[in-house]
Amino acid sequence: MADKETFEGSWALILGASSGFGGAAAAELARKGMDIFGVHLDRSSTLPNAEKVMEEIRGHGRQAVFFNINAASAEKRAEVLDKIEAILAEQQGAGKVRVLFHSLAFGSLGEFVAADPKRSLTQPQIEMTLDVMANSLVYWARDLVTRGLMVQDGRIYAMTSSGSYRVLPNYGAVSAAKACLESHIRQLAVELSLKGITANALMAGITDTAALRKIPGHERLIQEASARNPMGRMTTPADVAATLGTICGPETYWLSGNTLKVDGGENNIG
Fold first, then answer.
1. Do the domain assignments include residue 212?
2. Distance between CA atoms of 104 and 41, rounded to whole angstroms?
3. Are the C-beta atoms of 134 and 193 separated by less than 8 Å?
4. What is the 3-state secondary structure (H, E, C) of the chain?
C-alpha cells in the first residue's frame, strides 16, 4: 500500500470538490499526502462547504487551490488548467497531477414523456445533463494529458451509480449520463493504457448527499437502501473516499476499465 512518501509533491484534481463524494475524496487524498486542486460551483449560500473542505485539506498540511467555476465550460476549463500549469511549473517539474476524480452531480430530473408535455425534460436539459455528468470527464482528462500535466502512471476515477442500469423515477437523463460515463471510462482506459494511466468508475450504494436529496422521493430511496444493504446501513462518502485512498497508488497499475462497486454489497441484491 502506498504511503505519504509515494504521493509527496503530487496533486489530485477533484471535480465537484466542495461536498459529497468530492469533498470526502479531497480530504482523504490530502491525508494520504497529496495537494489538492478543487473545482466546484457554489453560490454564496453554499460556499462555506468549500471553505470547510479547504480547511480540512490544510489541516493535513497540504495545499488547497480551489476554483469556483462551471466545470462544463470549455473556456473556464482552459483558464483553470492554465493556472494549474503555472502552479506546477513553479515546482520546477516535480509536481504533477496523479489523480483525476470526477464527481459532478448537476443535472436535470424529470420525465422524458410527462403527462403534462410542458413538464417533460427538454432537449437542452437532457444534453446539459450528459455534458456535465459524463462528457466533461473526457474533456478534463484529455486536456490534462495533452498538456503533460498528469504523471505517467496517473489514475482517473469517476463516480457512477446503479442508476446506470436501473430505472428510477425522474432519473432518466441522469441514468443516461451515468451509463455514458461508464462507457467513457472504458474508452479512456484503453486509449491511455500505453501512458500507464488507468481509468475506473466507482459505483457507490445509495448515499445521503445533497444531490440525492434533490431527487423526488429520495426519502423512500434512503429507507430502502438502509433496509436492503447487508451491512445494515447506507453507504457514506467516507466509505468511498477510503476506498479511493487505498486504490490510487502505483500498485493498482493493472486495474483499469472497470466499474468497481463500493456499496457494502447493496447493488448485489435485487
1. no
2. 10
3. no
4. CCCHHHHCCCEEEEECCCCHHHHHHHHHHHHCCCEEEEEECCCCCCHHHHHHHHHHHHHCCCCEEEEECCCCCHHHHHHHHHHHHHHHHHCCCCCCEEEEEECCCCCCCECCCCCCHHHCCCHHHHHHHHHHHHHHHHHHHHHHHHCCCEEEEEEEEEEECHHHCCCCCCEHHHHHHHHHHHHHHHHHHHHCHHHCCEEEEEEECCECCCCHHHCCCHHHHHHHHHHHCCCCCCECHHHHHHHHHHHCCHHHCCCCCCEEEECCCHHHCC
Domain that holds residue 110: 4-207+237-263
How many structural domains comprise the chain? Answer: 1
pTM for the whole thing?
A: 0.93
Pairwise CA distance, residues 203 & 206, whole Å: 9
Radius of gyration (Cα) for the chain, nearest Å?
Answer: 18
Residue 268 included in any domain: no
Q: What is the pLDDT of residues 123-172, one digit of tens each?
A: 999 999 999 999 999 999 999 999 999 999 999 999 999 888 988 888 99
